[in-house]
Specification:
Layout: H1 5-8, H2 12-15, H3 21-34, H4 40-43, H5 48-63, H6 71-92, H7 96-111, H8 120-126, E1 128-131, E2 134-138
Antiparallel strand pairs: 1-2
Helix pairs in contact: 3-6, 5-7, 6-7
Length: 139
């Protein structure tokens, strides 16, 4: 495998379970400091679509069991991509939108799903404070 998927997606279940702005901000900093460098070949590729396919295939091969990625695992991988990978690429790369479009298409094709992406600020602003599960405002 070309990418160090285990390092990039380390604790993907824990990191995908985000409840507050502060937690999301801390997790994003952790991802950028320790894991974003693992995407260097992807973001610097001359043929972005092909490189995105390779990345998604590596993720699929790493997490598949009996020829497919199980539902809960795929859900957590999707959250990880949406919360960290896509926003980090959009924030840090000049051609981030083009990379994210190619990565989204490759991901959806490989995992037979339909995820989309957004930027860090939109996600960050979307967190709400809740008491007993009832939203009471932005936190």
């Amino acid at each position: 495998m070309k990418y160090d998927i285990e390092r990039i997606f380390d604790d993907y279940t824990f990191l995908g379970n985000v409840h507050t702005k502060a937690q999301y901000e801390d997790n994003t900093k952790l991802f950028l400091e320790k894991r974003y460098s693992g995407l260097k070949e992807l973001v610097e590729a001359s043929d972005v679509a092909s490189e995105c396919q390779k990345f998604c295939q590596d993720v699929f091969e790493t997490y598949k069991k009996f020829g497919k990625v199980r539902g809960r695992v795929q859900m957590n991988l999707n959250y990880f991509m949406i919360y960290y990978v896509f926003p980090s690429i959009l924030t840090n790369e000049e051609n981030g939108k083009d990379i994210c479009d190619a990565l989204k298409d490759a991901w959806n094709q490989n995992f037979k799903c339909n995820i989309n992406y957004t930027d860090y600020n939109t996600l960050y602003d979307g967190f709400q404070m809740k008491i007993f599960g009832i939203p009471i405002g932005k936190n």
